[in-house]
Amino acid sequence: MAANPSPDPRANRSVDSPGPPSMIPEAPEAIRTLLHALGMRPQKGFGQNFLVNEEILKRIVAAAEVGPDDVVVEVGPGLGHLTHHLANAAGRVVAVEIDRGMVRYLRSTFQQVRNVEIVESDILQVEPEDLVGEHAYKVVANLPYYITSALLRHFFEAARRPTLLVIMLQREVAYRILTAPGDLNLLAISVQVYGQARLIARVPAGAFYPRPKVDSIVLRIDVYDQPKIDVEPEKFFKVVAAGFAMPRKQIHNSLAQRLWMPPGAATESLETVGIDPMRRAQTLSIAEWDRLTKQLKQRGLV
């Protein structure tokens, strides 16, 4: 289902309070009671863990620097705790929810709020420009582990990328993204090519209902105007993925086996761009991967 984009987010902004807080429970027991009344339960398959800590919700909105001229795409609003705070600050909020029961509840809760639109869809099946039109936008999301890489790639590779993302992730996943050059991984590179990530807040498991097994991290990613590579992203990530397919092996072996290169071609290509073939994938910088991809492209190997 596609949204109907508004050319000016302020046009749909309500002058009234964005919604009755009493309809959005803030304590675990209240959420449990509400879900029971609605005949619903948290869906593990959708990674539903509802954030009930008001201070963290406020920090997320503050980290996104949401203002009255902003369009915000919220992924997985759940019961609308964060949606309420976003509606108070933004010009327009497009909340995309896959759970049909949650969609019914959200539409009932925010039906009088003119700057909030609830879209029932899988975010990975919706192009961002279909949600926001020509307007710049920000993304706010509480992400389950299984969708993290796919969702980031979806927004980074979109025809219209967001200006920034503020996302909540499992602690271990967030730390992987924040890894410094010299010990990189495929996820870190896939983010750092497109934007600068920084830690905003650590969130204990007890701030959610149901309580997850691990703590979470709030990250802000400021998206670059252009990716930090000069080659096509498709070819670049094909090479990087090949390199990380066997991270314990030396880079020349990984590339040769995963890209089906002729004998010696991987070693020669690496040496041509000044990379020791005996190094491992995690030690290469983004600039080195970029140079390597250009070289492999020139040789017709990717």
The CATH superfamily title of the largest domain = Vaccinia Virus protein VP39
Strand order, biggest sheet? 4-3-2-5-6-9-7
Mean pLDDT: 88
Radius of gyration: 22 Å
Oligomeric form: single chain
Count of the domains: 2
Largest sheet: 7 strands, mixed
The total strand number stands at 9
Low-confidence stretches: 1-7, 10-22
Q: Which architecture of the largest domain does the CATH hierarchy give at level 2?
A: 3-Layer(aba) Sandwich
Q: Which topology of the largest domain does CATH recognise? A: Rossmann fold
In helices, the fraction of residues equals 25-40%
Q: Report strand %.
A: 15-25%
Classified by CATH, the class of the largest domain is Alpha Beta
N to C succession of SSEs: HEHEHEHEHEHEHHEEEHHHH
Question: What structural class results from the helix and strand content?
Answer: alpha/beta
Number of helices: 12
N-to-C CA distance: 37 Å
Report what the structure shows:
It is built from twelve helices and nine strands. The chain is of the alpha/beta class and 302 residues long. The chain has two domains: 9-223, Rossmann fold; 233-298, rRNA adenine dimethylase, C-terminal domain (Helicase, Ruva Protein, domain 3, Orthogonal Bundle), CATH 1.10.8. The strands form two sheets. Strands 4-3-2-5-6-9-7 form a seven-stranded mixed beta sheet. Strands 1-8 form a two-stranded antiparallel ribbon. Helix 4 (100-109) links the parallel strand 3 (92-97) and strand 4 (116-120). The longest helix has 13 residues, at 286-298. It starts with 27 loop residues before the first helix and ends with a helix. The model is unreliable at 1-7 and 10-22 (pLDDT under 50).
